[in-house]
Amino acid sequence: MNFIRKYLNDRNPEVTLFFGYSTYVVLGVIFLSISFFRAATIPFLDNLFITVSAISTTGLATINIAENYSLLGQIVILILIQFGGIGYMTFGSFIILSTKHSLSEDRESIHKTAFSLPKEFKISKFIKSIVIYTLTIEIIGAIFLYFAFQNDPRVNPIWSALFHSVSSFCTAGFSLYSNSFESYANVTYLNLIVFLLSILGAIGYIVMVDVWLVLRGKKDNMTFTSKVIITTTIVLLILGTVFLFIEAVLKNDISFIRSNVLLQSFFQAMTALTTVGFNTLPIGALQSSSLFILTVLMIIGASPSVQVEALNQQRLVLYLVF
């Protein structure tokens, strides 16, 4: 262990981040390969795929989560999603800060690299705020989702609510249901809760802080970047919904349930734009034009360069808060 620690200290933060995530992938595969973490025989490659997809919050799955993994296995997947959503270093640092008042210089350097923060920025309060914000939203989301799942016999409603709340907020898209949320295509309540969780997770903590400061009267206006992010999200969400709705109505796409085409169009546009990955419609049955719209929304929503640049431009907000 001393050798590994010395090796990492001699390397730059990017190497340490890569090593850290690789370690979590290895641990995830090991746990998911243990018999009592599984409910069926699962090939190694599937365990590896699920682990990487969870820690990267990609949400793709080669097997059904609920049918192939026991409750312990599902908990491991949820932890991987949470670590991937918050950042494994952030969560670990939060635990350290709960018992200590400061972080080591190496750990601070890694965080500043991960969040693209300036060197002089004080990271401690920032980390605590991110974790508290994340856990608070996820717990509230789980409470609301429980009422949507309480009569669903497929999965324990409390566990289902917690799992899908975390998966939504971390924009991971993992579901305990084999057909994602297709059974809830016309349930406005669930669609709305998942939408709010996904949007809050996708927009991010820093933009929400900017909005909060304006609402509390501590700032007169949001930063330019926050305005661009929020405006772009709203415009693309509306356009995506309208295009999908028109496609469904004019081309009579049978994938849409006719009783509430607008709600389904809205949810699919949202889940593509936030890259959360849930679906209330069978995606493979959609028409090519609808798939093209969803693809464009996913490309825009997942653009890492835009996200990093937006984060860099939020430094003024960070300094005002911390």
Q: What's the quick description here?
A:
This protein is mostly helical and 322 residues long.
Shape descriptor reads globular
Class inferred from helices and paired strands: mainly alpha
Major β-sheet, in short? Answer: none
Compute the number of strand runs.
Answer: 0
How many structural domains in the coordinates? 1
Task: Bin the helical content.
Answer: 55-70%
**Radius of gyration from the CA trace?**
20 Å
Order of helices and strands: HHHHHHHHHHHHHHHH
* Estimated share of beta-strand residues: under 5%
Return the average pLDDT rounded to an integer.
Answer: 79
What is the tally of helical segments?
16
Regions with little confidence, pLDDT below 50 for 5+ residues: 88-99, 304-322
Task: Please give the alpha-carbon distance between the first and last residues.
Answer: 35 Å
List the helices and strands and how they pair.
Blueprint: H1 2-9, H2 13-33, H3 44-55, H4 65-68, H5 71-86, H6 88-99, H7 105-115, H8 124-149, H9 157-169, H10 188-203, H11 205-215, H12 224-250, H13 261-273, H14 288-301, H15 304-312, H16 315-321
Helix pairs in contact: 2-3, 2-5, 2-7, 3-5, 5-6, 5-9, 6-8, 8-9, 8-10, 9-10, 10-13, 12-13, 12-14, 13-14
